[in-house]
TrEMBL record:
Keywords: FAD, Flavoprotein
Gene3D superfamilies registered for this protein in UniProt: 3.30.390.30, FAD/NAD(P)-binding domain
Protein name: NAD(P)/FAD-dependent oxidoreductase
A Pfam family that the UniProt record links to this protein: Pyr_redox_2
Entry cofactors: FAD
Family as reported in the entry's similarity comment: Belongs to the class-I pyridine nucleotide-disulfide oxidoreductase family.
Length: 501
């Protein structure tokens, strides 16, 4: 039986059975009445709709565009595919060093974009989340247009749908924050990468956060001359200071111009070859020109068009939808989850908050969003990742010891010729618990997951040091740092921690 046919057959039976099991009232209004309307079908919306239906609620999911949201169609999935191409180029540059000779390599950007589309399609069709959502009887309206409130219980879409819901969950995600200086219409965002016909010869990237660093790194690998402009004193300002410094240094070694601490962008002018940006640095006027300007100065809530005022939903001073610990907005029957709330803007957090919002929407506000250890990382060259406190923050709050191991001192990075970077472990001297882990270098994002698990398990650093991690691996460097930290703690305490435990 085809997936679609199975979905149709299962839908009615499944939802009625679950409604009765959950003791939900039988709906008494017209056919467009539903228990829960979810707006936005990114990770937050998809998980919210799945959870609401799983709890027996009659659920409708409204998506302006495709199921999967920005995450699947414009964010991590396609951008990670570009990052993989950048990685392949890095690997190709190593071939000669390992005795493999052949002709040079050339990037065919249109073919890469075809591969990106293929990956996006495959990820979407291979994910079983859509099947599970359909199987639970959720009514999914894809390409429904922009949804907006008519009143606190009614939502209309620009595609002509009109829905009435007992509970509503907002999962509309975010959008790139635009610059508001003269000529800003000449700039682009990371989303425009999908429409480029070729790799631009030069690029200015404005904003040295997660998105800007990733775009700058990928297009440097593709051969663009990239200048990265960060207004603050260092790129990746939410990372540990050492991470920012080592990544910036590596970017410069790869030929990128990294400009930190400039004053302000004044304007943009069109030129025959691209765009000229006027800015000030140390009070003096300056300019930079490139074929393309990409702006990545932050992410703001996608609430334009929602007509939140008609429902009375409040936003905070940054424009994000204000929610309490139960993901409830200022209007008790309206919930919100994911990027639109402005909390840690990542896929796992969006999915989890969607789950919590739906649980509370259906069962009443009972389950608060929990504090959790959240690993964060990005697929630049070199990669960087973090979990827990930065060294600066940890020192403000704890008596700490810090153990740092360079990748050039570990076996696997030497074998692979990938010795840029380090692993830093920050440990509380009193409890011996791990407060933070910061990694720059090959496979940094994967490596950091190990520290995240150890921290979640509230493992002491000496317990982590005792795990015989496989050799030679990148993850092994966390064990090495844990061993160094343990030795220091032992020296300080004048005793063997293994014997004591
Ligand atoms: C370049 C980039 C790379 C990233 N890389 C990573 C990564 O590697 N790992 C990671 O964890 N996170 C990454 N993120 C962040 C991640 O993509 C987001 O945190 C995540 O997508 C948020 O999910 P969401 O469901 O809240 O919103 P979204 O995924 O943005 O989905 C919201 C959906 O709602 C729709 N919508 C908006 N308004 C309306 C409306 N009025 N009516 C109907 N529909 C509407 C939108 O069109 C969209 O489809 C990245 C982000 C960017 C920009
Ligand atoms: N790999 C990943 O996990 C990944 C990748 C991309 C984005 N994201 C998510 O998306 C969110 C948004 O990322 P983002 O990079 O768009 O925003 P961001 O807020 O993380 O970074 C914006 C950067 O731009 C700088 N900036 C602000 N105004 C500026 C100006 N006028 N000129 C120059 N620089 C300016 C800021 O100082 C900051 O460094 C992140 O918080 C993250 O959660 C995650």
């Amino acid at each position: 039986m085809s997936g679609a046919r199975c979905r149709r057959l299962c839908r009615t039976y499944y939802s009625e059975e679950r409604r009765s099991a959950a003791h939900l009232p039988v709906s008494t209004t017209g056919p467009d009445m539903t228990d829960v309307i979810v707006i936005g079908a990114g990770p937050a919306g998809a998980f919210a709709a799945h959870r609401a239906a799983d709890l027996g609620a009659r659920t409708t999911l409204v998506a302006r565009d495709e199921f999967g949201g920005m995450a699947a169609n414009d964010g991590p999935v396609p951008v990670r595919t570009l990052a993989h191409a950048a990685r392949l180029l890095r690997e190709a540059h190593q071939l000669d060093r390992y005795g493999i000779t052949g002709d040079g390599f050339r990037l065919d950007y249109p073919r890469l974009l075809a591969r990106v589309r293929e990956v996006v399609h495959d990820v979407r069709t291979q994910s079983d989340l859509r099947d599970r959502v359909d199987g639970l009887g959720v009514t999914v309206h894809e390409h429904a247009g922009t949804a907006s409130f008519v009143d606190p219980h009614t939502v209309e879409t620009s595609g002509g749908l009109r829905l009435h819901g007992d509970k509503i969950i907002l999962c509309t995600g975010g959008v790139s924050r635009p610059l508001t200086v003269p000529g800003a219409e000449l700039t682009h965002t990371h989303s425009d990468a999908w429409a480029l016909r070729d790799v631009p010869p030069s690029m200015l990237v404005i904003g040295g956060g997660a998105t800007g660093a990733q775009v700058a790194s990928i297009f440097t690998a593709f051969g663009s001359r990239v200048e990265l402009f960060e207004r603050g004193p260092r790129i990746l300002p939410t990372e540990d200071d050492d991470v920012s410094a080592v990544v910036a240094e590596a970017f410069r070694e790869r030929g990128m111009v990294v400009r930190e601490n400039f004053d302000a962008i004044e304007s943009f002018d069109k030129t025959s070859d691209g765009v000229l940006m006027h800015f000030t640095q140390n009070g003096a006027p300056a300019s930079a020109e490139a074929a393309l300007v990409v702006v990545a100065i932050g992410w703001t809530a996608a609430t334009t068009g929602l007509n939140l005022a008609a429902a009375g939903v409040e936003t905070d001073e940054r424009g994000f939808v204000r929610v309490d610990a139960y993901q409830r907005t200022s209007v008790p029957h309206i919930f919100a989850a994911g990027d639109v709330t402005g909390r840690l803007m990542l896929v796992p957090q969006a999915s989890q908050s969607g789950f919590i919002a739906a649980t509370n929407a259906v069962r009443g506000p009972a389950v608060p969003m929990w504090d959790q250890v959240s690993p964060i990382g990005s697929f630049t060259d070199p990669e960087y990742a973090q979990v827990g406190l930065t060294e600066t923050k940890a020192r403000q709050e704890h008596d700490v010891i810090v153990a740092t191991v360079g990748l050039d001192a570990a076996t696997r990075p030497v074998i692979d010729g990938r010795t840029t970077g380090f692993c830093k472990l920050i440990v509380d001297r009193t409890s011996n618990q791990i407060l933070g882990c910061h990694v720059v270098g090959e496979r940094a994002v994967e490596t950091t997951q190990l520290a995240a698990v150890a921290m979640t398990a509230r493992m002491r650093v000496d317990e982590l040091a005792r795990i015989p991690l496989s050799f030679p691996t990148y993850a092994g460097i966390v064990g090495r740092a844990a061993y160094i930290a343990t030795r220091r703690l032992e020296q300080d305490a004048g005793r063997d921690l293994n014997e004591a435990s």
